[in-house]
């Protein structure tokens, strides 16, 4: 199923107040989206690097989850966000929870798609190898994802989305950029899908510490309700 951001139905916040975009480094993210069902923005952040005291920002990230996700995380009820951010078991439970997940990545600093693809490939391959799950099938599936990004140019404000259905070990990756038709690819290798989730949602080993921290605080607040 193709999901275009422009087509996403931005829902009203449950409290009944009008919807306001959440600004992540000056990039707007809706507080709720609808894929097959309404999903809420539970965490957001950026990927960046510091070179000679200069911060270079690459992407802004928003993580959308079914609100019911908190029902699968009850054993962490009452734990503060800073504790959850350091608890990889918590994020393992989040990744494995049978709820829909949607990660929206917006490009801040333009790069070639091949560069982004190599970053993804390296992160996923290393995780697979560490768990002794990197076989021929995984290599082929990962190669297809790298090829998908090979011909793309990730200019500023381009959008990459990762859609993880609730009860399926698949993922749909979509790429959209101004003036270009949306492109998408389905990843059907369960091990590769798991490691892509871990790249963005993997606790202390996640690609964005700010996203993990924000996600931990957001889920902590929900668990306390």
TrEMBL record:
The signal sequence is none
Query: Please, which domain of life does this record's source organism belong to?
Result: Eukaryota
Domain named Chalcone isomerase is located at 24-221
User: Sorted alphabetically, which Gene3D superfamilies does this protein's record hold?
Assistant: 1.10.890.20, 3.50.70.10
Q: Which SUPFAM superfamilies match?
A: Chalcone isomerase (SSF54626)
Q: Which PANTHER family match?
A: CHALCONE--FLAVANONE ISOMERASE 3-RELATED, CHALCONE--FLAVONONE ISOMERASE 3-RELATED
- This protein is called Chalcone-flavonone isomerase family protein
Species for this entry: Hibiscus sabdariffa
């Amino acid at each position: 199923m193709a999901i275009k951001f422009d087509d996403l139905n931005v829902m009203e916040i449950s409290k009944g107040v009008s919807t306001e975009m959440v600004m992540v480094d000056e990039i707007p993210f809706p507080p709720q989206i609808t894929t097959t069902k309404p999903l809420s923005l539970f965490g957001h952040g950026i990927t960046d690097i510091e070179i000679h005291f200069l911060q270079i920002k690459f992407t802004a990230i928003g993580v959308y989850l079914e609100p019911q996700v908190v029902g699968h995380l009850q054993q962490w009820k009452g734990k503060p966000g800073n504790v959850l951010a350091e608890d990889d078991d918590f994020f393992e439970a989040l990744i494995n929870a049978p709820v829909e997940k949607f990660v929206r990545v917006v490009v801040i600093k333009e790069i070639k798609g091949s560069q982004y693809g190599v970053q993804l490939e390296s992160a996923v391959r290393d995780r697979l190898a560490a768990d002794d799950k990197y076989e021929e099938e995984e290599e082929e599936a990962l190669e297809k994802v790298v090829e998908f990004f090979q011909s793309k140019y990730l200019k500023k404000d381009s959008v990459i989305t990762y859609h993880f259905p609730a009860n399926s070990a698949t993922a749909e990756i979509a790429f959209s950029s101004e003036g270009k038709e949306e492109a998408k690819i389905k990843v059907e290798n369960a091990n590769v899908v798991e490691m892509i989730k871990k790249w963005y949602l993997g606790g202390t080993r996640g690609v964005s510490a700010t996203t993990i921290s924000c996600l931990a605080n957001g889920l902590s607040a929900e668990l306390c309700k």
